[in-house]
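Support reply, case 0932

Customer input (verbatim):
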Amino acid sequence: MTDRLLSHRFHGRRKGKTLTDYRQGLLEHDFNHYKATIPFETQKNSWLEIGFGNGEFLSHMSQNNPDINFIGCEPFINGVAALLSSIEKPVDNLKIWSDDARLLIDEMPDQSMERVYLLNPDPWPKSRHHKRRFVQEKTLNMLSRILKKGGLFIMSSDHHELVTWMFDHTNAHDNFEWTGLSGDDWLTPPSDWPIDQTRYMKKGLAGKDIYWLIFKRK
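Our regenerated output:
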């Protein structure tokens, strides 16, 4: 393990409520098929999701886009089990990293990702915890290294203050350019977004605003 791998500190729980026998079995028997390992070799047309939660987006996209290679990072083991349980048929275009995403990003080749998604991350609302937010200058440097030129960094949140934080930090970075043209773009998901696939989008449909930030790698 390199010094870079040892330099990151993860904040948060690794496991929540007790898993059902079925989901525990998925972790024991199915996870190895999808497990990402270091050294990590990326494939053509690769998309990365950081913190996939229960995996609704990854499950839908990997099963409906066989020509795209998806990598999902989620240290919360209940989320990994939820993703595995939602995959109806085994797929070969999905890899799962069950640890801090930064550890895997460190090992990815330069300009190897077409897209990076950060969907509804933990807002860490207390001021003393803002340093735990994923979007920081250091992580933006990491993402700008692995994104291809013209690649997209797509973020969403229903937490207004976090949205402002993510926009300000990313917009100030030399290697990212906001794709928005008007205020309406803050409420507009990517054109290929599976609008009914996640509980966060259902919040939006129920009247709770979901804000979207789409940045392009210069």
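We compared this against your earlier run and they match. Two observations from our side: The longest strand covers residues 147-157. Residues 160-171 form the longest helix (12 residues). Please reopen the case if you see a mismatch on your end.
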